[in-house]
Write the structure tokens for this entry.
Amino acid sequence: MKWRNTYISDFIALIFPELCQACNQNLVQGEKLICTACTYDLPYTNFHLHKENVVARQFWGRIDVSMVYVLLYFSKGGKVQNLMHRFKYRNAPLIGNKLGSIAGAQLLQRKPADHIDMIVPVPLHPKKLRSRGYNQSAQFAQGLSGPMNIPVDMDNLVRVKHTDTQTKKSRFSRYENMQEVFTIRYPEKFKGKHILLVDDIITTGSTLEACGIELLKIEGVKVSLAAIAYAE
């Protein structure tokens, strides 16, 4: 019976409550991953409303991009750090899907709307993909794809060189670390396309820059960038 299943679910939730991945408070019925309060109160950038935002300016003179969008501001000790840590290191891939769907809904409000043909996540090296179990950028891309109704390509842009972690490197060291890391298997597949290239966090932007340089070698390609969070 339906009432019995509901009673059992409520009893399980009482013993093993689901927690908001941002604030650690109990989720109530109907909430998934992020509570309603956090969904409204997260530090959104609203970059979909501002073409010449602070992250877009970061790429000026480095790479020719049509749009740069980031969903959230990242700060140490904040809710976004909780989300990103659990997303990347605590086997919680659905956080990426959730944030991607929020970001996709925002991008649909962009005026004028940029015509995107394809969403392409920054790839992981196969070694790191095996150890982590999923590509966090791909999870975000899949979340974006739903509300935007745009296909995701996860096989054409590939990482051919395993690199050390970028976390403690300077901006120039990050740039050097990204040289000749990515390649494109079938350039003709992207020919003439407007590609939304996505990553999880933007700091210096060196990873997105390296991917974008490879994409822009293809005839007629336009590149826009999107990420979950921006860390200053």
In short: Residues 1-16 have pLDDT under 50 and may be disordered.
